Amino acid sequence: KLIYFNARGRAEHIRYIFAYTGIEYTDERIPEELWPEYKDSMPYKKLPALEIDGKPVAQSNAVARYLARKYDLMGKNEWDAMICDVLVDTLGDLKQGE
């Protein structure tokens, strides 16, 4: 289960991975006005979080990298994996510049 607000934001690349792999998941969208009720139950009191085996895991890029490794999307070797990391980090840098 992916838990985030009703927005693309920091969860969208995780949704893309699920869409690309065809993995079914629950896309739980929390209305912002209900966030205070959820906040204390989320790791680091942040979203998005991916619930894995009943445990919420935060940090969207770490979650995306976990899924990419799990579903063999990290390339054929360490170089390919590094290029994937570079792309993810570059997208993060671009978003911060908005």
Topology diagram in text:
Elements: E1 2-5, H1 12-21, E2 27-30, H2 35-39, E3 49-52, E4 55-58, H3 60-70, H4 78-96
Helix pairs in contact: 1-3
Protein name: glutathione transferase
Domain GST N-terminal: 1-75
GO molecular function: glutathione peroxidase activity; glutathione transferase activity
Structure description:
This protein has 98 residues and is of the alpha+beta class. The protein contains 4 helices and 4 strands. α1 runs parallel beside α3 (60-70). The longest helix has 19 residues, at 78-96. The protein starts with a strand and ends with a helix.
Tell me the number of helical segments per DSSP (H or I, 4 or more residues long): 4
Total DSSP E strands:
4
Sheet having the most strands? 4 strands, mixed
Content-based structural category: alpha+beta
Shape: globular
Number of domains: 1
The average pLDDT score comes to: 91
Can you say what the CATH homologous superfamily is?
Glutaredoxin
CATH architecture: 3-Layer(aba) Sandwich
Using the CA coordinates, give the radius of gyration: 14 Å
Strand content: 15-25%
For the record, the CATH class is: Alpha Beta
The share of residues in helices is: 40-55%
Low-confidence stretches: none
Q: What order do the SSEs take from the amino end to the carboxyl end, as H and E?
A: EHEHEEHH
Note the gap between the termini. 29 Å
Q: Which fold name is given in CATH as the topology?
A: Glutaredoxin
Strands side by side in the biggest sheet: 2-1-3-4
